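Bench notes, bay 3.
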Amino acid sequence: MKGSELLAEATATLTGAGVPDGGRDARRLLAHVLRVPPARLTLFLPEEVDPDLTVIFRVLIERRCERIPISHLIGRRLFYGREFLVSRDVLDPRPETETLIEAALSEPVSRFLDLGTGSGCIALTLAAELPNATGIATDLSHKALDVAFWNRNSLGLTDRVAFLEGSWFVPLARGQRFDLIVSNPPYIAYDEMDGLTREVRDHEPRMALTDEADGLNAYRQIGASAGRHLTPGGRLLLETGPTQAEAVSAILRAAGLGEVSVIRDLDGRDRVVSARRT
């Protein structure tokens, strides 16, 4: 079959299965199978597709109909201009998290800490964008850290970021301090989980999504200890859900942090709460 015929077939299959924007997903998967840049796929559509590649493509379409995320099918996700390995063991990097990166880069940084690093996309992006900075990233999941280690090696940042296994600040040596602490913690409330898309609810690690409570427990834990690990004037940047900024701000003020403010993402939604050890 020609690429154009395969694409039409796949689009119809995905649309019939209720997958949103099936044509877009079909194009991304076909570009992946043919190993061509997605932007240049149109040039290859008139050509015949190898039968073996046709089989592979159709299998991927079937799995997408099961609502397995595109990133899990191709094993990669683009974040802040770099490709990261992803799997069902890590939270899929999302465009809105780039708001956190932009806020972090708005001031000089020499030493940073990323809490709950997952794929490592935040910590490794900071290291890549800040060539004179070094950092530590922690995560409770050994499987997530395996993914982060792979990404670190792929980006050539083995001497810039250290990964430690454990909950939040627990793996740190006594007295370690940072001029920047960042985190994208689990903030989905338990009663909101059923409202998530199947791609997220069924295929991303639950512990990275929810605290099984009101969605604020991680902020309480981080806020309570952040001051002891920040240098004077050091910043804390936390990604939040779009309705949580006020509650998270109150938590950080109660913990003794100052200059608390809210940063919106490109869609105008509250996305990052910033605070400082004054």
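Next record in the batch:
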Amino acid sequence: METKHLILNHNSKEVSAKTDQKVDLIVTSPPYPMIKMWDELFEIDSLAKNEEEIGNEFKKSISFLNEIWNESLRLLSEDAIVCINIGDATRKIGSQFRLFNNHQKIVEYFLSKGFVQLPSIIWRKQTNSPNKFMGSGMLPVGAYVTLEHEYILIFRKQKRDFLKNNEKENRLESAFFWEERNVWFNDVWDVKGVKQRNNILNSRERTAAYPFEIADRLIKMFSVKGDTVLDPFLGTGTTTLAAMLNERNSIGVELDEGLYLNFVDSLKKDNNTITKKMNKKIDERISEHEDFVTNSQSEVKYFNENLKTRVKTKQELRIKINKIKSIQIEKEKNEALLRVNYF
């Protein structure tokens, strides 16, 4: 089996001009409006001093994102699912401290486009720092609650039917383990964040990366082998790597040339190392499942011939996990195509 991964150093507002490939799933984490590190991208006037002025700046940044959502929807199949990791923002305007509800604006947009919202996931990113609280410390009225969570918003238009034989087989092979389901489909995820400092030449100061585990779970939960995953805000390539690991195709778009070059060049330079790291994740997943089987307090009676391990339910009998055999890279100036082959 081979999967293909198109990486574009391009403006996400024009991605449909670069490909007509149909997309089955969006997994992305866009820039967060009203977070200062993104002011330049959104052309935010940091000197805005009153509610009306800052309200206009907020609307402008939301409109920026909506243009990219508009373009992304051009590639979506009718039964595609959209997963967006977004955090709200807090900011002091003059002497007034307030919240900017980014997640609500994204919900409003997708509902206006005829999507149905599915239950969201709360990603908890708590910190134990003694200085994390904002405001007047121990004095009432003037202190503010600390934001220690982000949202993973999930949308779709219609339920997907797996009518073709290859789609049915891909779905069976893409099933997840019983114990994984019991963790992933809870509405609160405790997943550790990743370092944000960016030392990449000609790039922004922070990567704004989100954890591999977030993208990995979402791709396993809401797509099957052979599907195509889109990330219009590729960043450090987390979504593409998760798609590669899970035998999905992908399209990733990144405006920042430094991030684009770093991701593609690292794949070329450290190809074997990255392949080994990815395959190690597969070994760890199977090992964790076998630990579950060994320690289970109830009977695990079914046997998966592909993985040579017992499983809890009949729906897990056909799970098949292939390791990465090779990654081939075809690179042009602002575009790269990765071809991934599996054992």
